[in-house]
Automatic annotation (TrEMBL):
Transmembrane segments: none annotated. This is NUDIX hydrolase. Residues 17-162 form the Nudix hydrolase domain. PANTHER family: ACYL-COENZYME A DIPHOSPHATASE NUDT19, TESTOSTERONE-REGULATED PROTEIN RP2. The keyword Transmembrane does not apply. GO terms for molecular function: hydrolase activity, acting on acid anhydrides, in phosphorus-containing anhydrides; metal ion binding. Keywords: Hydrolase, Magnesium, Manganese, Metal-binding. SUPFAM superfamilies: Nudix. It comes from Pseudomaricurvus hydrocarbonicus. Its cofactor is Mn(2+); Mg(2+). Signal peptide: none annotated. The keyword Hydrolase applies.
Amino acid sequence: MPEPLNAPSSDSAASVPADPAATIILLRPARQQFEVLLLLRAQALKFAGGSWVFPGGRIEPDDAPGMLLESWDAARIGAARECQEEAGLTLDPDSFLPYSQWTTPELERRRFSTWFLIGCLDEDAEVIVDDGEIVDYQWLTPSAALQKHRQQQLSIMPPAYLTLLELSRLDSIEQARAFAQSREPIFYLPKMIKNDKEVSILYADDVAYHNGDLQQPGIRNRVTKGAQGWEYTHCPASSG
């Protein structure tokens, strides 16, 4: 089983510690494709209020007594519990596959180190949102979710955006599971750069990751908030 991944060294000794968390990318078959479950967080919530997210949340000590909260075992148990609480769905945590791990940028006041897991569901399972933290839900193909985001009908955060972008290139649940199994979970420790009205999220191999110079020539691996939502740029080099 995967072990907790070690985060790169922080550049800021004053950054808020990241709490262990887990989220489940829940897939179901649909019209020879597959759909992903997205939940709408209540607008009043301090973290990601008004955003569409995968089911998930903080890993609690009761999820895995005697285990590290950062561990894979704790993550899959916590993700299953959160899905039950938020969406009324009972899942088998032993069936989950590790997909990625994301840590909130240091500039944020509330930070999480979150396992992203792949899970599957029968087409006819009923979703019942808790009507507290979660106020609505949608089953969408990854491509449809991205289109709604571009049309400003679906607010999502960068981890969900990049996950949906990856899944949109796959044709079936089988391909999604095979893709997850073909790689080690990727650890993301993004950095946020705010420049005038633009926000960029940089990943570790981006040329500007350490110095914040967005115009510097070199590798681009970043998402930027534009008029049509998040836009991903990934190329080996750029003249700027």
